[in-house]
Amino acid sequence: MNIVTDPKTLHEFEKHSIKVEKISRRGILKGLGVAGGLVLAAPLMSRQAFAAYQTGASKMPHGVVVDPRVFVAIAPDGVVTIIAHRAEMGTGVRTSLPLIVAEEMEADWSRVKVKQAHGDEKTFGNQDTDGSRSTRHYLIPMRQIGAAARTMLEETAAKRWSVPASEVKAQNHEVVHAASGRRVGFGELANDAAKLPVPDINGLKLKDPKDFRYLGKGQVSIVDLHDITTGKAHYGIDTRLPGMKYAVIARPPVTGGKLKSFDPADAMKVAGVEKVIEVKGWPWPSKFQPLGGVAVIARNTGAAIKGRAALKVVWDDGANASYDSVAYRKQLEEAARKPGLVVRKEGDAEAALKSADKVVTGEYYIPHLAHVSMEPPVAVANVTGDKVEVWAPVQSPGGTREDLAKTLGIPEDNVTVNVTLLGGGFGRKSKCDFVLEAALLSKAIGAPVKVQWTREDDLHHDFLHTVSVEHIEAGLDKSGKVVAWRHRSAAPSIASTFAPNVKHQAPFELGMGLIDMPFEIANLQCENPEAEAHTRIGWFRSVSNIPKAFAVQSMVGELAAATKRDQKEMLLELIGSPRIVKLDSVKDPWNYGEPYDSYPIDTARLRRVVEVVADQGKWGRSVPKGHGLGIAAHRSFVSYVATIVEASVDDKGKLTVHQVDTAIDCGTYVNPERIQSQIEGAAIMGLSLAKYGEVTFKNGKVEQNNFDTFPVIRMDESPLVTHVHIVPPGPDTPPSGVGEPGVPPFAPALINAIFAATGKRIRSLPIGKQLET
Amino acid sequence: MIKVKINGQEQSWDGDPDLPLLWFLRDEAGLTGTKFGCGEALCGACTVIVDKQAVRACITSISDVAGRDVTTIEGLHPTGDHPVQKAWRQVNVPQCGYCQAGQIMQAVALLTDNPKPTHDQIREAMAGNICRCGCYQRIETAVHLASTGV
Ligand code: FES
Ligand code: FES
After folding, report:
1. Searching chain A, which residue's CA lies closest to the CA of residue B129?
2. DSSP string for residues in A181-201
3. Per residue in A608-641, pLDDT tens?
4. Is A425 an 8 Å CB contact of chain B?
5. How far is the C-alpha of B105 from the C-alpha of B53, rounded, in Å?
6. What spacing in Å lies between the alpha carbon of B56 and ligand 1's midpoint?
């Protein structure tokens, strides 16, 4: 499936697009309970989801809730309200998950209202919106919820007409009895349907996919589209409460640093500043607890920012005051050149490298990266007595609630987390430090407080993407076949944010491109040398896949060059035969939290995305002089993605990306239009990190401040065109990730393209000025 | 007392005359459609229109706009049906949507100035507006669509 973003084709979307704003607001839900809707008597919480395949959903904190009474309400006027329990940060999940329910219950989408769930995992099940797993964990549960609601409506109508339930059918917001031509709307049935018990989810009949009206079609716009284009959409930054104060915080510039002393006098002189107070900090590492510092509280954000600039603060920098990115890189390089903890071993790579006819070595560096979501961290909190209510753009509403309860020392039932839209997340907003800050301040001053992070705060105090050196040696025999492969990955771990003295990457990091490497090579060894963190490390969209895919797929390009072969042929040869990869030698193989039976590493699917992108993207086409084509393929978040980049470099070193083609196999999908937008965006994010992405430290402090020193790609440098090719799923192929897997293959495909264009091999990101010589 | 017309309505301010227009709009006037992204005229999230020109509200002080006409995303069109807004919806531009008010205001200013911009002119005129989600391809398509009439 291939959707083009040209204006003519997109015109079609308009015709089908949904006018949510026209929906009647009558008979709306009260809170998340139901007003005259589907209220059911017998308490029954179904937690087990039958499916043709199993997912890791039930292993997530609080698991899955499959219960129409929790997720669906039908008002007497027929408006169906469906709960979105995941956070919307741009992937479209707030539309996609309710759409699945609507599809399965035969609701007319134009009469559906989406309501955002607050943070409450006991009620809604797990709400962590990360790991590209919302659709893969919820396709079946959401279908079951819809099917249960549909079944109850059908039974109610059948009873009313005294006909067997098998003779009636829900159809477009009505139940119809074809034999007699009778029909009745969902709204009229709601009250009686609510009196029925919820049917056993395991006995439910799901719709035949060939009858789908919405799923897989890509003709439904996101529910917030109109509000976004009119400025009405409510993000974290947009919450306003009566009597609310505005705060910015000066935080210790070095991770683990502390406040020594401060002088508020000059800050207090700034017009609009009302208070200057200390904010409690936790010793590092402290998971997502606030860093502490001094808050300036004012009548508006502008005054708070101006007041902070006038504040005098003395810090105690602590143990990380000597963190220096230049020196640290050398340390990582040294570590990666020596043996490390062996995390995967097949055959004898040492011996095979020694006896190889030729050894190709590549050492790749990727620095720290910052998320810089367009909306910097921001939160509003209102503490009253032993209760707190927050409004915040969080990816983890449930975790935020738990952390608020712990931080304030109150029961979780006293914590209300209202989830706003997120102005981007990319993993940053999985960490709720900024929400905890707002709560502490509100408690301290006895009024609602908004804590606003500036862009400088965001860059200085991010939970950064790790920094890594990836060292790969590949041994070839006389025929040019790769017979040995050793990959050492040295990078500080995200686990260091949770516990002291962490020296090795966690299984979930090793499983993102190191131990799950799919190549068919007889002698293979993966090692993880030690590395210690000196700042807060966190998840960044696609996480460890970025450095690992960059290294592995760059090495494919290097091997193609060394053996004078076509990149794509080299890639397919390394992937090898269509098979399920066995990871027997890996002690703790991590598979994105999914059971390997449902989501194995299937090289046939990886080969297929390579073939599809080569075919659709016309691999091997002749390109103008000075242009080059590069290819890369990577499996992450249990999806398969391959990308071709056409790039050129002019005589002044100016890089242009002329065309991007990406093929994705994400199994069964819900909204191909949003898959396309995610992949288009992934190319931009991939280009940003490849060309510019770098956060550096000197004397323990981040050297970048804003978009001038941490540039991201702007429109004038963005790819001239990006094509997305969605590989049609096989029957019953489980859904897999979309939000993240588009990112990892981009940088190596670009670097391979630059090599094809110029003969120059970039091994250290960002590209920066490296092409200018 | 500073007086300024915002979306056709007279507003006044007797606080700090250096207060950035952005924070006046958002925190004092309650017009939250205009967004904060950098505070340094580097991202375009705060773009508003002052007397037909796109202006970065984060570095424009309230006194700079005294006596002038400021239009924010809320005041662009009473039902949200400005041709640029319609084009944005037609192309399904937004991902997270946070940058889009600024993008739309910039596009409106561009099309006022140059009703039929070329591909290169669009890419250049919109380069001051960052979209971290990476909606550029669709923004470009939408501006083009708006310029040819929706
Ligand atoms: S906030 Fe004004 S340009 Fe970024
Ligand atoms: S849509 Fe998210 S920043 Fe532009």
Report:
1. A714
2. TEEEEHHHHHHHHTTSPPPPG
3. 999 999 999 999 999 999 999 999 999 999 999 9
4. yes
5. 9
6. 6
